[in-house]
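Q&A log
Question type: sequence-to-structure
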Amino acid sequence: MLYRVEGIVIRSMDYGEGNKIVTLCTETHGKIGVLARGAKKLKSRHAALTQLFTYGEYVFYRQNNGLGTLNQGEIIESHFSLREDLFLAAYASYACELLDRTLQDEEVGQFWFTQLKACLEGLSSGKDPQIITHLYEMKVLQAAGYGPSFDTCISCGREDDSMTVSARLGGKLCSRCRYHDPAAFNVSSGTYKLLSLFEKMDLRRLGNIEVKDTTKSELKTVMRAFMDMQLGLKLKSRNFLDQLDKYEI
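Response status: OK
Response body:
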C-alpha cells in the first residue's frame, strides 16, 4: 500500500553501502520505519529527507506493517540550524530519542507529533532550550500516562501552601503527607510555579520567558528525578547533553 504522511525524522541509520533507514514520528500513523535507497549518496534526491530533525511529507510503499520503502518526499522544514549548532543538536537529539524510546510502534502519534514539532520549532527560534526541554519532558510523561499533579496533594487530595514535590509518588505532597516520601523535594516558589504551569501548558503555547539560573538548576533536578523514577530510560543523548552542559558558558 502507498502511504503519504507528514513526519519528523527521529532516527537515521546507515544500511548497506548506500542506503539509510529512518524512523519517522507521524501525526497519523504513529512511529514508522522507512528504507531510503541510495540516500547516503551525495547526489541522492532522498539524502536531505533522511537528515535527523527534518520535517517533511513522505511517500512510501509498505506491506503488512513492515519496513516501508521511500518513493518520494518534500521537505517542509529542514531544521538545518539545529544540526549546525552542537548544543541545540544535543537538545534536539534528546527530544527525539526520548520520544523514540517512549512511543511504541503503531501507537497513535498525534499528540507526540505536535509536541515534538513544537519542541524543535522552539529550539530553532531561539527560545531557552532548557525550559523547552523540561516542558517537553512533562508532555512526554503525560502522554505516557505518568504525568505528575501539582494542584492538590497526590496522597490525600488536600489543598495547602506546601511546595513539596515527590517524584516517586508523582506530584505534590501536603504538609501532613510529607512523611510518605522522605526523598521528596522542597522546591522554591519559582520552580513550583513552573511545574504547575508545565502541567497545564501545551508546548505550542510557550512564549519567550526568562528564568533565573538557580530556578533552572532546581527545575532540572526535579524533572530529572521524575524522568528517572517514572520512565527509567538510559539515553545516550542525555548523557551527551550532560557532558556539554559542563562546558556551556
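Response note: The chain has a mean pLDDT of 93.
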